[in-house]
Amino acid sequence: MDARQEFCLLDVREPWEVARAALPGSVCIPMQEIPSRLEELDADAEIIVMCHAGGRSQRAAEFLANRGFGRVGNLRGGIAAWAREFDPGLDVG
Asked: What is the pLDDT of residue 4?
């Protein structure tokens, strides 16, 4: 974000989690819906996947990589780590 490089921040948490706390500009697709909604994602774009703590997003990132998405990463520690490090006022539960 600081480098101002374009990327897609894919939030794979459930809608109730996203309603509680979300990062601006993120694309929200619950993890279980990713297989049926792949066409909403650009396989050539850089995609950073996030969830609450990093486990679901790692699995989703691996799924995308196995489907030909070549520039996929995982936000280690998820939104919980983001809140601890960058936005302590964010209520992530």
From this structure: 58
